[in-house]
Amino acid sequence: MPEVLDFEGRRDVGSASWERADPTAALIERVAWNRWHVLLPDGEHTHEVRLERDHGGLTGACMALMDDGKERCPARKYNDPDEPCAHLCTVRKAAFGAIEGDDGEPVRVYDAGDAAVARADAHIEAAMADGGRVVGGGRR
Fold it and tell me: What is the rounded distance in angstroms from the CA atom of residue 51 to the CA atom of residue 49?
């Protein structure tokens, strides 16, 4: 199981990452069920944040989107890699406060298990939609 991120600890100690995270001023764009592009008001680069619930805990990662590809977020690269950076904290604060992303929808963090079930359901529905396969000249 991935390492659970300690957002409450960051909040409780008033960490720089938690204080810097401002979901109302940041640009937050959902790009997948568990990924967002985040640009902080004082940031130079957009970061891709992955955040999801896994067995009740929040897990995730942050990557800077650089011209030459992805690079680990400097805050997580040079500091404690298990502690959430300001980009992760921004998405967490937005989800907790039901703050809207750039698409006008509230930011929500979903459970990884629910996503797996939804993908399986979609595959089942697609298989059922074709009317079943023909076996030996008849339908099953």
Answer: 6
